[in-house]
C-alpha cells in the first residue's frame, strides 16, 4: 500500500504540478517571474 501511495504521489507531482501548475503560474506572474537579486545583476545581459 505504501508503494502504491508513493508511486501515485510521484505521478501526481510529475503530471499536475510540473506539467500544468508551474507553467500556469509562470504565465500569471509574467515579468515578476524573472526577478533576480541585485547581487546577480553583474551576470545579466542588458538588451
Automatic annotation (TrEMBL):
InterPro entries reported for this sequence: MMPL_dom, Mycobact_MmpL
Bilayer disposition of the protein: Multi-pass membrane protein
Cellular component per GO, a single term: plasma membrane
Subcellular location: Cell membrane
Record keywords: Cell membrane, Membrane, Transmembrane, Transmembrane helix
Ranges of residues in domain Membrane transport protein MMPL: 2-39
Keyword Transmembrane helix among UniProt keywords: yes
Protein name per its UniProtKB record: Unannotated protein
Amino acid at each position: 500500500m505504501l508503494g502504491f501511495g508513493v508511486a501515485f504521489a510521484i505521478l501526481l507531482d510529475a503530471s499536475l504540478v510540473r506539467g500544468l501548475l508551474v507553467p500556469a503560474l509562470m504565465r500569471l506572474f509574467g515579468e515578476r517571474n524573472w526577478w533576480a537579486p541585485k547581487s546577480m545583476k553583474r551576470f545579466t545581459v542588458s538588451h
